[in-house]
């Protein structure tokens, strides 16, 4: 059995292509993919939660309307 020839080929493809962290641009970490660290992931998450992506309509408009007597 000489199947070794196939195994010894150093043609190992990486699981994922390295991608820069969307927050800081540093190479992403496997554990926090696609971010480089837990912090960057939280930053992104916070951005979502803080409303940059949300629709800031209901509360603000309702208040403005209420103030205008
Ligand atoms: Zn980062």
Structure commentary:
By secondary structure, the chain is an all-alpha fold. It has a domain at 19-50. The protein contains three helices and no strands. The chain is rod-shaped. Bound molecules: zinc ion.
Characteristic terms for this protein:
mainly alpha, 69 residues, binds zinc ion, rod-shaped, 38% helix
Give the helix/strand class. mainly alpha
Percent range of helical residues: 25-40%
What letter string, H or E per element, gives the SSE order? HHH
Quote the average pLDDT: 75
Q: How much beta, percentage-wise?
A: under 5%
Q: How many strand units?
A: 0
For the biggest sheet, the summary is: none
Report the end-to-end length measured between terminal Cα atoms: 90 Å
Dominant shape: rod-shaped
Please give the radius of gyration in angstroms.
24 Å
Number of helices: 3
Can you list the ligands bound to this structure?
zinc ion
Uncertain segments are none
Short description:
With 69 residues, this protein is an all-alpha fold. The protein has 3 helices and no strands.
Summarize the topology.
Blueprint: H1 4-7, H2 38-49, H3 58-67
The structure holds zinc ion.
């Amino acid at each position: 059995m000489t199947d070794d020839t196939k195994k010894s080929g150093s043609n190992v493809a990486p699981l994922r292509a390295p991608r820069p962290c969307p927050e800081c641009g540093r190479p992403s970490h496997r554990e926090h993919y696609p971010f480089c660290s837990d912090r960057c992931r939280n930053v992104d998450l916070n951005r979502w939660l803080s409303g940059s992506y949300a629709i800031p309509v209901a509360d603000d408009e309702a208040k403005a309307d209420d103030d205008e007597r």
